[in-house]
Fold this protein.
Amino acid sequence: MKIIRMSEIKGELNKKGFLTKTLVRNSNVAVRNIILNPGEVIKPHSVEVDVFFYVVKGEGTIIIGKDESSVIEGDIVICPPNTAMSVKANQNQEFSFLNVKTPSL
């Protein structure tokens, strides 16, 4: 058994400039904790694999295709392959979520 404590993982800025902690990465899955500062936005993009988001802390907005929804801690949002997705942190607080891609990219 392996236990991963997100609080003990050092975050690094990813290629898009967002604080990211890689928690698991193998050929089957990639799990990253992405932490957005208040008001930060991940611009629309798509990937060729299944993605889901799990909100760890804070509140924000996730857009999948043409559907937009406010999300809070504990929410899960599913994004099918090749579908545009975007994430926005609310203005007043940090927004932390898990980004899970399967299979891994």
About this structure: The chain has a mean pLDDT of 97. The beta strands are 12-13, 19-25, 30-36, 41-45, 50-57, 59-64, 67-72, 76-79, 85-89, 95-102.
